């Protein structure tokens, strides 16, 4: 999925986060495929091959999260330029929130369950749940 330079994280992590990373790469400005690949490399995801990047871009476009248009290349052929749509901005924020929650859950002091502060019906202390 990725060429050298190698990603900073294991390949399964890169695959799991790649869609979100593409959305993040497009948050700053519209870019063509090669620009997205370079942005992913700078963010530690390695440089994805076109055979994996362009189908991903097509899927994100089908979902309405990005939009593509043709632009003249600087002294070369026309290129498809991708930009983040409003739904793409929303998805990026949702994904970032979920990733932060995952990181928190993996931390040294994971957050307490949502019902941990709710009063119990009994006055007896809760016993730990067996694992």
Count of alpha/pi helices: 4
Largest sheet data: 3 strands, antiparallel
Radius of gyration: 21 Å
Mean pLDDT: 86
CATH superfamily: Winged helix-like DNA-binding domain superfamily/Winged helix DNA-binding domain
H/E order of the elements? Answer: EHEHEHEEH
CATH class: Mainly Alpha
Strand content: 5-15%
Quantity of strands, as a count: 5
| SS content category | alpha+beta
Enter the CATH topology name. Answer: Arc Repressor Mutant, subunit A
Low-confidence segments, given as residue ranges, are none
Shape: globular
Strand order, main sheet: write it out: 2-5-4
The amount of helix comes to 40-55%
Kindly give the count of domains.
Answer: 1
Distance between the termini: 37 Å
Question: Any idea what the CATH architecture is?
Answer: Orthogonal Bundle
């Amino acid at each position: 999925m990725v060429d050298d330079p190698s990603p900073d994280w294991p390949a399964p992590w890169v695959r799991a986060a790649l869609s979100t990373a593409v959305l993040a790469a497009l948050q700053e400005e519209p870019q063509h495929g090669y620009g997205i690949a370079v942005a992913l490399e700078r963010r530690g995801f390695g440089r994805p091959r076109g055979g994996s990047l362009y189908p991903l871009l097509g899927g994100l476009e089908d979902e309405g999260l990005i939009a593509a248009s043709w632009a003249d290349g600087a002294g070369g052929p026309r290129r498809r330029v991708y930009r983040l749509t409003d739904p793409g901005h929303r998805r990026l924020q949702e994904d970032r929130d979920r990733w932060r929650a995952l990181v928190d859950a993996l931390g040294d002091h994971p957050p307490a369950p949502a019902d941990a502060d709710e009063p119990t019906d009994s006055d007896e202390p809760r016993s730990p749940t067996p694992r």
